[in-house]
Records
---
Amino acid sequence: MLLEQTAINPVVVHGGGPQIGQMLDKLGIKSEFKDGLRVTDQKTVEIVEMVLAGSINKQIVGFINEAGGRAIGLSGKDGNMVKAKKVTRTMRDKDSNIEQAIDLGYVGEPEIVDTTVLEQILGRELIPVLAPVAPALPAARST
């Protein structure tokens, strides 16, 4: 592949907010947003994973393969590649100007990334396509 011959090893990381919204609507699950971020409960996170790691990921892999590349679909859960920490955000109330904590449920951001799986794939004419789904880090325990 030309990219690898020039020492460029692409990794595709995708999202899927609109497709998640469409599937939730189709299933009659109402989305709630706080400060522009989707609040994700247990039922919603199952749909999010299905859409991101299933539907969208496999579609992108298919497009790359049809274009002559060789892609492999993965998520942060595969090989414990990514562990996430719960997102914490605050929002300022418009009327009172008081800052409040926002609970977004199962929304996280990468905290630990183990590149072992990617290192095994890169340089072998495979393009990893990563769905942004990861297990949560265990919550810190207070003593």
---
Amino acid sequence: MGRMLAKRAQLYDAIRRFFRERGFLEVETPVRLPANAPETNIDAIPAGTGWLRTSPELAMKRLLAAGHEKLVQLAPCFREGENGRWHHPEFMLLEWYRAHAGYIEILADTKALLATLAQELCGTTDITWQGAPLSLAQELWEKRTVSDAFIEHAGWDPAQHFDPDRFDLDLVTRVEPALATDHPVILIDYPAPLAALARRKPNDPTRAERWELYLGGVEIANAYSELTDPTEQRARFEQANALRQKRGAQPYPLDESFMTSLEHLPPSGGIALGVDRLLMILAGANSLDGVLPFRHG
């Protein structure tokens, strides 16, 4: 574990240097919150009169709305009931946000970041994970729309005929297992109901400007162009809370300070990247057990 602790420290240092050289401001935001963003399938851990954060997203967007244009944070986050090979209830997220940008600009950042980190930690962008080759070279990234991937591997288009239960099942059993594992794969332009904080595509309201990144078949990051309409955001949060209640989960209060700040949020792009999973792949570990020094339920 001593080697892995050193690798983690090296990774954090490389991440911070990457963003510092590109003019980002590193910030820290509260860990205990009066409200997280209501999301249908993400449960927060209670802490006193509030909850531990599931993401620093709302606070970082408030800073964007206050005029800070390029922000980054390495953020310990917490989610109830997440445990397994790729999951742990306490985990590290890397989130960064850019004003006057969108999900395509965030994708360019991500390609450059991962190539840089692979060089820093492994000495090359061509690595091996689980006995198989995986190249993080920027020119090899594959980009597929969610609709195209589902039509090919599951036989239907979820943007045109959305079914949340069928989507989740087919994503896990048909689409994800069919993704290439020897280079990064982006699934882009999600059905609009699956992007509670992302803006819809201007020329196609059935889809949202959201993408997810897979490395070696493992989901690593979730990015989107940010929704800036307070009225639509409130409606989406209320819908998420209604779906939470439908599955027997507690609804969450809305962060009214965040809702007010949306009136001043410029067009922006942001991303959440799972640092523990990334370290697992760059360090050649088979699961999070190999990279978390203190594993608990």
---
Amino acid sequence: MDTIKQIFNSVSNPVFAALGALGPVWGLIVLSVFTGILMLIIFKWASNQSGIKTIKNRIKAHLLELRLYKDDANLSFSALGSIFLNNLKYLAFALKPMIILMIPMIFIIIQIAARYEYRPLQANESVIVSAWFDKNVDLRKVQLQTPKAIKIETPPLRLPSQQRIFWRLRALKAGDWEIQIQASGETVSKDLFVGKRISSLASHRVQKSSLLTLVYTAEASLPSDAAIKEIAVDYPNRDLVILGLHIHWLVLFFALSIVGGYALKGAFGVEI
């Protein structure tokens, strides 16, 4: 899993590094339009373009038939039936490319989410950090170590019923920091980012055996047999504001990708 994550990151990091200079909103706009173009190219390659064009022309013809013979019930119902059947054929033509498109889309969404779902902490901002432990771990002996730039504000809150501990930390200085948790003779680290730049964040660090390890791509997975099962940093959500409106990045991404792809389909000669 970690090898797959490294490949994903090696491909995406240069792209996001280049877009980072544009700021969160403009960077996402450029990325969305680029994604729309990429989806057009993949759709054209994976689909039966001549078949889709033929089906669309048939649907248009039957729609015209429905309008011309609206006073003839038999012809109208026949045209409606033909439109329905041709729509089913169109869906069949579109199914294969849509399934193929899901693969790069999942990869792209995971990589964007790592940078746009959350933002780094700001200086003098607090955050909750929590960790889950193996049932054999004595929570009273767990230790948290932080650099001088990260202050532990509260004593650990232990929940033995969940084998979980909470800490509240305060970031004192911008930078890329690392906190460490010690349990049962093991030491596990977790990245903690403070600053204004767009960073690839993993809000959780999970064990290799968890499928979520492919979602949290920014950090290596924990060993499957580690005493510490998971570490979570409650980063603030990234807030995108456009024309005074607060918009979630996923809504903006899908809207711009679809609109951009549809607007450029003629330029790329793609039948959708």
